[in-house]
Amino acid sequence: MSDLHLYDTLTAKKRPFTPIEDGKVGLYVCGMTVYDYCHIGHARVMVSFDVIYRWLSRFYQVNYVRNITDIDDKIIKRAGENGESIFTLTERFTKAMHEDADNLGCLRPTHEPKATDYIPQMLNMITTLQNKQLAYQGDSGDVYYKVENFADYGKLSKRRLADMQAGIRVDTADDKQNPFDFVLWKSAKESEPDETKWQSPFGQGRPGWHIECSAMSTCCLGDNFDIHGGGHDLQFPHHENEIAQSEGATQKPYANNWLHVGFVNVDGEKMSKSLNNFFTIRDVLKDFHAEVIRFFMLSSHYRSPINFSDTALKEAHASLSRLYHALKLFHDDEIIIDECVWQSDYGQAFSRAMHDDFNTPKALSVLFQLVGEINKAFKNNELDKSKHLAKILKTLAEPLNIAQAGPNEFLQKSLNADGLSETEILAKIDARTQAKIDKNFTLADQIRDELNAQGIELEDSRAGTMWRRI
């Protein structure tokens, strides 16, 4: 698919995408460290790469690998605080991560390698680096990567090692030869439990964080693969260190394209527990429909920063509701996915947007153009035209995994759990219907006003009285 263009962080250019192997794509995304519930920053990475995966899968056989970090300082600390095994902790939060991703409508990756399953491969890579004079063991027993011996260090983040070193003083208690050398293997500490210690040529210990991804990505996708992705915060030092390790060990280019998802800010500030503006996915799902969160994430380009707030989510809810209102003009079984509509002008416009570095805001604008045309045709009693346009809308929205539920199913979901129950609402609608049959229009209007005051909007249509929460 020669018309797909990706913005590559390494070259800082948007370039035509050409896979290494015709018809196939290898995609690696840095996953979660499973010691706590996923937050909205994780949600953005999940949703962004889910859409990238879905779109690529329309044209290629995609091997989507997203790792799970299940050994790490934070994991050891949290397990100790809880008085539980690290494996009990990581199993629980891996399950929670999957629940969150499923709720957000994300497909599971092709493979989800766990770091603890790849310790031998990490040790092999560390040994290779040591043999190539790119690693050394300090007095503490820790093994470090020697950044000065990798000429291209800093190429991803556009940083020069000499500039970074300026003004930096090495602590005399530190056994690093350079302050930017990073750990490949951490020697075992007596205070840490035995389950965090593995045997190695360098003594008992455990891997550093960066080596985990280098080993898992190259084992699952090969020494050179198509796309490496993750959050913008991982660009330096994590992804920079991955390049140094992988290319230092294999002497081959690591990933051909680097995609980075922009930051999530909260009310204009960086999300941080210290600022008390840190929200887990589960926190947000208590007040907002999961598809609203997904739509909100897609309303900005994946590379751009996005500002999270209740106001922004309410606006996303209103916008998504417009799509569903256009679809609910017809019965669900009248609007089915039809691949032929991709050849329409709307399908071509949507595809051009997605081929342009997965430009979801522009793709969404095509959907809203369709909404206007659907409503116009329906108002003019051009039902066949309106129905055909609705079919295009639903089909084009499928790769974004929005507007795929039954319209009433979505529209009747509340922004929060407060208010009338569905049973109470339907009872009032039945009472209003009976009042209209009895020609008691004053009572019918009174019931409508009462419902509206409680956040329930009614709409009479040829299919009966529909309701939604507002």
Automatic annotation (TrEMBL):
Localisation per UniProt entry: Cytoplasm
Gene Ontology terms: cellular component: cytosol
InterPro entries per the UniProt record, alphabetical: Cys-tRNA-ligase, Cys-tRNA-synt_Ia_DALR, Cys-tRNA/MSH_ligase, Rossmann-like_a/b/a_fold, tRNA-synt_1_cat_dom, tRNAsynth_Ia_anticodon-bd
Residue positions of motif 'HIGH' region: 32-42
Binding site for ATP: K273
Domain of life per record: Bacteria
SUPFAM superfamilies linked: Anticodon-binding domain of a subclass of class I aminoacyl-tRNA synthetases, Nucleotidylyl transferase
Gene Ontology molecular function: any one: ATP binding
Main localization, broad class: cytoplasm
SMART domains: DALR_2
Gene Ontology BP, a term: cysteinyl-tRNA aminoacylation
Record-annotated Cysteinyl-tRNA synthetase class Ia DALR domain positions: 349-411
EC number: 6.1.1.16
Motif mapping: 'KMSKS' region: 270-274
Residues that hold Zn(2+) according to the record: C30, C213, H238, E242
Cofactor binding comment, as recorded: Binds 1 zinc ion per subunit.
Reactions mediated catalytically: tRNA(Cys) + L-cysteine + ATP = L-cysteinyl-tRNA(Cys) + AMP + diphosphate
Cofactor(s) listed in the protein's UniProt record: Zn(2+)
Similarity annotation: Belongs to the class-I aminoacyl-tRNA synthetase family.
Quaternary structure (record): Monomer.
PANTHER family: CYSTEINE--TRNA LIGASE, CYTOPLASMIC (PTHR10890:SF3), CYSTEINYL-TRNA SYNTHETASE (PTHR10890)
HAMAP family named in the record: Cys_tRNA_synth
NCBIfam families registered for this protein in UniProt: cysS
Protein name per the record: Cysteine--tRNA ligase
